[in-house]
């Protein structure tokens, strides 16, 4: 019988596991602390468990982490890890220090099945969902690499599910991993500092609202369906009106506490006019929100250009003059190709997307 990887289980999952093997459910709490706070992965070192239980655990279970293939360190302090996942696949995790804050950008899938035209991950196609252990393992490995002491200050103060993949398309594993981030016996990070970013899978936004309280970011990128249909093809399934209705439900009654961050990538000549900004103001009126303008980060093979600094500033001014909160995301780690939309890892594409795109290009040429 294959041994179960305990890194795949959140508190509820671990409690069920211990009940299954005829042990007391409170053992789950001890295990959680050993694994995630003390980063001990050898059962023999778990001194508050009896020798018999330790031996039983090593027969039935493992604590298996993904492997770091390579670490890159940017001149601005940003770090990127290439994480090996077997079968020639790998994903990337990025750590962005800024003042007293440290943000970890975590991947949720090998590649991505969505086909947003301006994202380099999309060009690579899709292989598979990450397991819970592979998702939470990125936080574990970052703490290890950054030398976090068990009772020391947090080095990762914020987590954003904004790496490779669409987190709401890997719902169950992503939610279990986020539960571990939130759990006091796990990483104890406040829900305000755990952010899930989605391209807008509407039914899953509603499900998330019920299952797991975290901050939500939505990749909006355009104020009209005509433009969004083109650059975020998922919009053809869940158009802007339905997406914003789900956002309003997510914000709920407590509008003072919860808000949504809308991400908006600045693509020259596509979505960056003053009229686009005014349309965006109208669209988001009355919705408790913040807009994060992301300068487009180029990658090999893309035809898009980033809007100029002036155009981005003008766009921001229209939003601010209308009373909205808008920020321009600083590009970090671009010398190590760690910026938004540049994460690529290594994807053994099952969708044959690269092949299809080359064929399309050849047919046009
Ligand atoms: N699939 C999720 C999580 C990815 S988050 C989502 O779509 O939200 C990564 C963020 O970076 C998203 O807002 C994405 O739209 C944005 N992004 C993708 N490619 C980019 C690029 N080349 N330049 C700047 N931002 C990009």
Characteristics:
globular, about 375 residues, about 20% strand, two-stranded parallel sheet, alpha/beta, 14 strands, 12 helices, TIM Barrel, DNA polymerase, domain 1, 2 domains, binds S-adenosyl-L-homocysteine, ten-stranded mixed beta sheet
Gist?
By secondary structure, the protein is an alpha/beta fold.
Written account of the structure:
The protein has 365 residues and is of the alpha/beta class. It folds into 2 domains: 4-62, DNA polymerase, domain 1, CATH 1.10.150; 71-360, Aldolase class I (TIM Barrel), CATH 3.20.20.70. It contains 12 helices and 14 strands. It has helices spanning 11-20, 27-37, 51-60, 120-123, 132-145, 171-182, 202-211, 225-231, 240-251, 274-284, 309-321, 353-364; strands at 4-5, 61-62, 67-73, 79-86, 89-98, 101-105, 109-111, 126-129, 158-161, 194-198, 215-219, 260-266, 289-295, 325-328. The strands form 3 sheets. A 10-stranded mixed beta sheet has the order 3-4-5-6-9-10-11-12-13-14. Strands 1-2 form a two-stranded parallel sheet. It has a two-stranded antiparallel ribbon with strand order 7-8. The termini are far apart. The model has no long low-confidence stretch (mean pLDDT 93). The structure holds S-adenosyl-L-homocysteine. S-adenosyl-L-homocysteine (SAH) binds at residues 116, 118-120, 162, 166, 197-199, 219, 263, 265, 294, 296-297, 340-341.
| Poorly predicted residue ranges | none
**Would you list the SSEs in sequence order as H and E?**
EHHHEEEEEEHEHEHEHEHHEHEHEH
Q: Please tell me the CATH architecture of the largest domain by its name.
A: Alpha-Beta Barrel
Over all CA atoms, what is the radius of gyration?
Answer: 21 Å
CATH topology of the largest domain: TIM Barrel
Strand proportion: 15-25%
With helices defined by DSSP (H or I, 4 residues minimum), what is the helix count?
12
């Amino acid at each position: 019988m294959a041994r179960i990887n305990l890194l795949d289980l959140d508190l509820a999952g671990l409690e069920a596991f211990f009940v299954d093997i005829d042990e007391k459910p409170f053992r789950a709490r001890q295990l959680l602390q050993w694994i995630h706070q003390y980063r001990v992965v050898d059962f023999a070192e778990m001194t508050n468990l009896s020798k018999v239980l330790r031996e039983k655990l090593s027969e039935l279970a493992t604590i298996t982490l993904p492997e770091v293939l390579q670490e890159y360190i940017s001149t601005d302090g940003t770090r990127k890890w290439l994480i090996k996942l077997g079968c020639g696949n790998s994903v990337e995790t990025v750590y962005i220090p800024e003042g007293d804050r440290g943000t970890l950008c975590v991947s949720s899938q090998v590649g991505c099945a969505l086909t947003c035209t301006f994202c380099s991950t999309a060009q690579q196609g899709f292989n598979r969902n990450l397991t819970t252990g592979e998702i939470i393992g990125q936080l574990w490995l970052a703490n290890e690499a950054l030398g976090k002491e068990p009772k020391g200050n947090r080095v990762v103060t914020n987590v954003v599910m904004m790496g490779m993949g669409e987190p709401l398309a890997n719902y169950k594993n992503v939610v279990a991993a986020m539960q571990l981030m939130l759990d006091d016996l796990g990483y104890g990070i406040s829900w305000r500092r755990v952010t899930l970013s989605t391209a807008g899978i509407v039914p899953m936004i509603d499900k998330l609202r019920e299952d797991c309280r975290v901050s939500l970011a939505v990749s909006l990128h355009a104020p009209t369906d005509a433009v969004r249909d083109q650059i975020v093809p998922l919009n053809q399934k869940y158009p802007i009106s339905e997406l914003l209705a789900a956002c309003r439900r997510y914000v709920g009654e407590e509008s003072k506490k919860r808000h949504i961050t809308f991400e908006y990538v600045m693509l020259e000549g596509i979505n960056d006019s003053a009229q686009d900004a005014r349309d965006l103001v109208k669209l988001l009126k009355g919705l408790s929100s913040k807009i994060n303008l992301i300068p487009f980060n180029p990658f090999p093979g893309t035809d898009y250009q980033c809007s100029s600094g002036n155009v981005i500033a003008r766009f921001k001014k229209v939003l601010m003059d209308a009373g909205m909160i808008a920020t321009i995301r600083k590009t970090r780690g671009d010398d190590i190709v760690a910026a938004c939309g540049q994460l690529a890892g290594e994807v053994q594409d099952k969708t044959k997307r690269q092949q299809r795109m080359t064929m399309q290009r050849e047919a046009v040429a």
